[in-house]
Fold each of these.
Amino acid sequence: MDLAQLYDQWKALMVAGEELPFYQNFFVKFYQAFIENDRWLQYLEGAGRTLLITAMALAIGIVLGILVSLVRTAHDQQRPGRRKNPILGVINAVCKVYVTVIRGTPMMVQLLIMGLVIFSSSRNYAAVGALTLGINSGAYVAEIIRGGLMSLDPGQAEAGRSLGLTYVDTMRFIVVPQAFKAILPALGNEFIILLKDTSLVAMIGGKELLYAVQGIYGRTWEQMFPLMGAACIYLVLVMIFSWLQGKLERRLRQSDRR
């Protein structure tokens, strides 16, 4: 007797109202959640979409974070006593409002506003979710990068300028490489948070891992195994990324010793 026949037999007993032993009940629910109708493929497909949304949001967040942090750092590092750039002041004020609003409001509220109000006519919920997550992540990435840049000795930037480098070249070749090593752990944590926050996209109809899980337990009427499966997938993804992050940090430390 193969697993499918065993499942059909024990499920029939369960439907008939017979109380099954623990191992039989466990097998029926496990089979129902992962094996029946090749449902495990839905988990893999949902995980792939989760990674895609995370990658899109991460790209948006990094670009926004770098731009905002550079503007705010350039504004804060203007030499005292000299006339400040008014255009830079206006852009810095806009960036401060952006960071304050995004960090001061819940992610769920931002997703609902973007999905149900601003992009209410769109049916590409995954793209709307990725955009919202990217905008949210950009505010946190901006503060992480700005903190790393401001923590460096100002003499580093002044030395670069004294050598004839422009502000952009000074940041690119001197300041940013040193700051990156300091902010890497915080950026890694932000990516992990972003990966887990993709589960919120299901609330506006975005098709990712949790959306697939909701569809499965909506058909099987059994929530524990699908949700535990999703939790295990998230855990494995986070562990893989944490391992990659640790490997990168060790390599950077080795380059410092050389």
Amino acid sequence: MTDISQTSAPAKQPVIMGRRRIRMSDVVDHAVLILGALLMLVPVYMIFASSSHDAITIHREGLQFGFGEHFAANYNAALFEYGGFTDSVNGVTMLTNSLILGLGFAIGKIIVGMMAAYAIVYFRLRFATFAFWIIFTTLLLPLEVRILPSYEAIQAMNLANTYTGLIVPLIASATATFFFRQFFRSIPEELIEAARIDGAGPVKFFIDILVPLSRTMIAAMFIIMFVFGWNQYLWPTLITTDESLFTLVRGIRQIIQAYADGSTTPEYGEAAALAIIAMTPPVLIVVFFQNWFVKGLTESDK
């Protein structure tokens, strides 16, 4: 008999690690991405660098690549010095107004969108589908198209120069309604039946079940709507004449016109500093909540 212990095991073949071939398509893709990133980042860097220079240097030489010696002075002036036509507004006030506007837009649009989607999906309305498509077609009517009737309605209700007039007319969102409708339709019927057996009514089902399940979608919609509200320029310009309600986006232009303190050269350095301050909160929200944003828009297993 052959001794099994003496049987030699087959020799292991050496593993040859080959180099991964670099395809030309990969090089082109990465080059396009890098160029696109530079196209977006270089102007931001130039604004940031220019915010550290005095107004005379920027006026004579244009935007700067290097940093100057007026960084702290420009940001301090942009944030804390009062200016405008009435000397009653500063950067902190405008930053607060922008935060109120962005949060009001985001929270209001999410609440209205969720409630509209909930009614369309879970209530046996005769014209639910038709109502949804009517809501969806409002995407073809941007603010610029309906700004005159919106302005007349706000003036008739005496809501000009108020936070209510800034926020309420624009909180209806077809985008949020569409995404929440698609999300609600993906929830299993078994969960709905279980909630019905447990005696959950429409309000309890919405608050205790749908809202917790919609966390990632709420986060994604919050990011989109906050940035949308934060960047509003036309509507706040039209509806507010009180400088205490000016936002940062509007203040960037205002600082050039009225913060010159009597000199003939606009304060470009302060305007650049205010532009950087205006970009910071939306960028931070997108960076810190990007994982929730991607999950909310792409997650399919609910």
